[in-house]
């Protein structure tokens, strides 16, 4: 058995407006069977009718630089242990056309950044990439010191977030909700296009985000395709709801890992 293009299109058209922008987090393995045409077909179906598709295209495994405290003053409560001076990875310079992407991003983001009409954001470790009519506008909102600009732009445009076979622990926009709830984002370091080491904004631990499910469920739309469970969250409502829930009960986002430094520091308010 195969998931057909027609079945995909039915589900996408039932869940998403014809020409709206949508952020997609996906696992093609979630279908439990092959998808006709693979990631490129899923992408074509999502783009059909004039939608704009936004995906995470993170590249920290390539471009991040580990820094030590000896290199200069470093923020405290920053969700990390600084490297010893002998250091870790030196980082490859990031450019928006470098083609480098973390292996765990999955097939859909890899297929999207390979397209000629793809736009990719100016952020060496947590870039977003997009294709479709609003791609340039959404992506232009990203900078090293404004990692979630494209998500704010998506919310302003009335866009959605589609979780295609993945859970809330993959919904990057919930880090923006943390920021809206008053938390400061973590600082990380990476190799910019000119080879310089730059400080950048980055999200923290996402593993506790499923704790927000009861708050987000009333606005969500769902469908199943094969074994793949899909959930659509209207972003504006999701951000407002999640930010209010986090502000009221900061522990909601804490993950199950005992002593998780990123959760501990985020819940305390982020870096100082
Ligand atoms: Zn955690």
Description of the molecule:
- The chain has ten helices and nine strands.
- The protein is α+β, with helices and mostly antiparallel strands.
- It has a domain at 5-62 and 95-184 and 212-253.
- It has a seven-stranded mixed sheet with strand order 3-4-2-1-5-9-8, with helices on both faces. Strands 6-7 form a two-stranded antiparallel ribbon.
- Helix 1 (5-15) packs parallel to helix 2 (38-47) and helix 2 (38-47) crosses helix 4 (107-113).
Q: Cofactors and ligands present?
A: zinc ion
Gap between N and C termini: 54 Å
| 3D shape | globular
Question: What is the N-to-C succession of helices and strands?
Answer: HEHEHHEEHHEHEEHEEHH
Computed Rg: 18 Å
Number of helices: 10
- The assembly state of the depicted protein chains is single chain
The residue fraction in helices comes out at 25-40%
Major beta-sheet overview:
7 strands, mixed
Strand content: 15-25%
Number of distinct beta strands: 9
What is the topological layout?
Blueprint: H1 5-15, E1 21-26, H2 38-47, E2 52-56, H3 60-63, H4 107-113, E3 119-120, E4 128-131, H5 135-139, H6 149-156, E5 160-164, H7 173-180, E6 186-191, E7 197-202, H8 213-216, E8 221-225, E9 228-234, H9 235-248, H10 261-267
Parallel strand pairs: 1-2, 1-5
Antiparallel strand pairs: 2-4, 3-4, 5-9, 6-7, 8-9
Bound molecules: zinc ion.
